[in-house]
Design a protein that fits this description.
Elements: H1 3-12, H2 15-26, E1 69-73, E2 76-80, E3 84-85, E4 95-96, E5 107-110, E6 113-116, E7 125-127, E8 134-142, E9 147-155, E10 163-170, E11 216-223, E12 226-231, E13 234-240, H3 244-251, E14 270-271, E15 278-290
Antiparallel strand pairs: 1-2, 2-15, 3-15, 4-7, 5-6, 6-15, 7-14, 8-11, 8-15, 9-10, 9-14, 11-12, 12-13
Length: 291
């Protein structure tokens, strides 16, 4: 007796049918693997069933779990790791100054914010860890005429000082660099300009010297030589280090004589102190892996 006949007997509900079914189950043979299916259901793998869930033998397979986040960058799909805080909201554990020592006293943790409050005793702030492929997200707010930035893919070409790509942060309305497209907020400083965002009008220029008001959201995505800048949830710039567009733009920048500019495979990430107060929060990273 095949499984369709057994299913019919069970659905009929008659005593005789059930007795026959019981007798069948008590005998030897293939019936040991019998699965009783409730009325209205279909047998999995039944080729006549339109709702069969058995995948064909040649169905493509994937090594990516269903709950793994992925993104496309540079035409490639990559897996996005879990989000991890680089600033814990309590202290400066995990951060150093430019030479690997303790952060300058001008950097303080107040009300859960990472604050540059005293530029005279500041200096740049660097992660102790080095990163290669990642999504780095952060929020900031600043005061009038502020100029700052986030540097990544950085190196010390002369054994001192860190040089590399810079996500520009500044009060465009009140600084001279705000008149130069490739030096405006979220641009790759002095190389590529960022596009305008729809949210720009909701962030009016600050009028006080101290940071205040709403925070803006920045994001930097790096996978090998492919890079994206995001601002307030919008992608405003995408480029590839080393391609023709890169070579042309670099040749017109202040970095034209730095042969290895932007080519560091891994490096710390740097928050710039540039003579102005600034607040950061939600400083987080997600590492990327090729699929």
């Amino acid at each position: 007796m095949n499984h369709r006949a057994l299913s019919f007997l069970f659905r009929s509900g008659s005593f005789a049918s059930l007795a026959l079914l019981a007798a069948f189950c008590g005998c030897g043979g293939e019936s040991k693997n019998l699965v009783v299916v409730p009325e209205g259901s279909t047998l999995l793998g039944d080729p006549a069933s339109p709702t069969s869930t058995v995948a064909p033998a040649d169905a493509p397979k994937t090594d990516v779990a269903a709950d793994v986040e992925t993104l496309e960058i540079g035409g490639r799909q990559v897996a996005v790791g879990p989000k991890r805080a680089l600033f814990n909201g309590e202290n400066l554990d995990g951060w150093t100054n430019e030479t690997g020592g303790a952060p300058g006293s001008g950097w303080r943790v107040e009300d859960g914010l990472l604050r540059m409050v005293d530029p005279a005793n500041g200096g740049d702030l660097l992660t102790k860890e080095r990163f290669a492929n990642y999504v780095f997200s952060f929020e900031w707010r600043f005061g009038r005429a502020c100029n700052s930035g986030v540097k990544y893919k950085i190196e010390q070409p002369n054994g001192k000082g860190w040089v590399g790509l810079e996500y520009q942060i500044q009060d465009d309305a009140n600084v001279e660099d705000g008149k130069i497209a490739k030096r405006r907020v979220a641009s790759l400083f002095d190389v590529f300009p960022a596009s305008e965002t729809k949210s720009a009008a909701s962030f009016p220029a600050p009028t006080d010297d101290a940071p205040s008001g709403e925070f803006r959201k920045g994001k930097i995505i790096v996978f090998e030589n492919n890079v994206e800048h995001w601002l307030d949830g919008e992608r405003v710039l995408a480029f590839t280090v080393g391609d023709d567009a890169w070579a042309a733009a670099k040749a017109e920048s202040k970095y034209k004589k730095q042969a290895t500019f932007g080519t560091a495979a891994s490096s710390p990430i740097l928050l710039q102190e540039h003579d102005y107060p600034i607040d950061f929060r939600n400083v987080e990273i997600q590492e990327l892996k090729a699929l």
